[in-house]
Amino acid sequence: MTSHSSRADGEVWDPFGTLHRALWIGGGQWAGKSTVARRLAVQYGVTVYHYDYHDARGHNDRRIARRAALAEPTTEPDLDRMWVHTTPEAMATETLAGFPDRFQWALDDLRALVSGHPIIAEGWGLRPELVAPIVDSPRRMIVMVPTAEFRDQQVRELPRAASLGHPVSDPAQAQSNRLARDRLVAEEAVRRAHQLGIRVIAIDGSRDAAAVAEIVADHFGPYLPEQDRKP
Q1: Tens of pLDDT along 119-128?
Q2: How many Cα atoms within 13 Å fall on the side-chain side of residue 71?
Q3: What end-to-end distance do the CA atoms of the chain give, in Å?
Q4: Which stretches in the chain have pLDDT values below 50?
Q5: pTM (2 decimals)?
């Protein structure tokens, strides 16, 4: 039987050619992926797909349906168990294990997206090992990861990074676990990217968002039509 996501020959189902023509920005949390993508949208006229927005909202019904199909509880897991009474290693393992299913939901979104401009998909769930089988060249993807120092800076300056945002019994422990998990997940993205020949940019705060966006645009240069570029 052929699934909706692939054909019998293993080729990813791509009815409008959107997936194979897309450009991808993956990497770690708090690296500025969304900011760079928005800058490219304004400067080069590209269409941007924000993975994190859909993953936190439109995909939740699919997440619940998947639990039901697996005979798992459909209620949200206990927050203390998820964030406090665990280890960063266990959290990272669980997160990485969930990315393939979540990636399929993102592909479904992208299959229905048709644009006269290049499409850039960005988000931490767009993993190198998941994107690589779809693209015709590793240059269609770039991975952005924050250095430890820049991650600390983001935690100090970004309200959404500074706290978990969920009611738990020990917010400090939960935040510590979260940050350590994010580091492990980012390190795995870097490892996979290096294996697959996908470029990695370490974001250390020495360049502003405009400068990083210029680096990313240069990397994607062959896929950004000249007529879409603006001086």
Answers
A1: 999 999 999 9
A2: 0
A3: 50
A4: 1-4, 8-9, 227-231
A5: 0.87
